[in-house]
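Sorry to interrupt, but I need a hand with the structure work. It will help me judge whether the discrete encoding reads sensibly. Write everything out right here, beneath this request:
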Amino acid sequence: MSRNCIYINARFLTQKVTGVQRFAIELSKHLKDSELIVKWVAPKNIVNKELAEFLDVELIGRNKGHLWEQIDLPKYLKDNGNPLLLNLCNTAPLLYKNSVSTIHDLAFLENPKWFSKKFYWYYRILIPRIAYIAKHIITVSEVSKEEICDRLHVKKEKVSVVYNAVSECFTNKKKEVLEIEDYILFVGSLDPRKNLYTLIEAMSYTSNDIKLKVVGCSGKNFSDFGQDIRHKQIDVLGYVSDEELLELYRKARAFVYPSLYEGFGIPPLEAQSMGVPVLVSNIPVFKEVFADSVKYCNPYSAIEMAESICNIFCMSKEELDDIINKGYSNVNRFSWTYSARILVNELLKIKNAS
């Protein structure tokens, strides 16, 4: 490949799919069909082999993880004429300047206690350096853009907002009415900023007939959950496939996402696309992404959160129809096709200026 090609850091194909990887996957699919000449490169420990084949990914290097990204990837790029590199998942080579990098949020700066010391200090070194050397920065909301510009001292014109959207598999195009079950659903990585502890406490103030299903992988931060939450009201499902998640969305009475901090928040948008009433915390980014299409709660009060949950269960048919229809309208504000167009335009500007 020549220098005219844009290379994409496809390390995300070696990772389980959470919101960050979903962003990279969906944009990659659209970039493949764009006017850009694009090449994906990844370590050899691919887990998403079907997508890797679709993108015609080139497997390079001997290392994996951070070592691959910091050693093998920049060496490969140097050997191929130092082309423009697009990084879509927060991390990037520290010494490679001809790059466009995505910073989804600054959660590690918002509250270091949410993360291990090793993670915090790695990101404390990595993210400011990435922001400094990148030719351009992509982020996923205006709130995140403001934080990046303020806390990392980046000029506003260097940052573009490329919103997340809903993947094709999480759509209820026919808006069909399904057999709803009496559970609320939570989907997300089980780290402290997702505020699952408060949600679990809130469940103790609700009716015993209301169940909570939790989808997400537990990590060392939540190793003390143990059997304490495996009681009648709460079902911890762990990591599930997209097909299983789709069914969980379809049958949920409500979706609850009480995060203390987010860069965007894809799961509530997925729930809206399936016609599920959504309750989120009243943090600024959710006001940007969801406006009046959801119900809001105080993420720091389990009692108030419980009241908000019960209010959804007590809604009349007219009230439910109203919030569901507002959800469908809100989902239509976001499109992977439109987001990809913004990204392509920024990449073309950089290519034409070089």
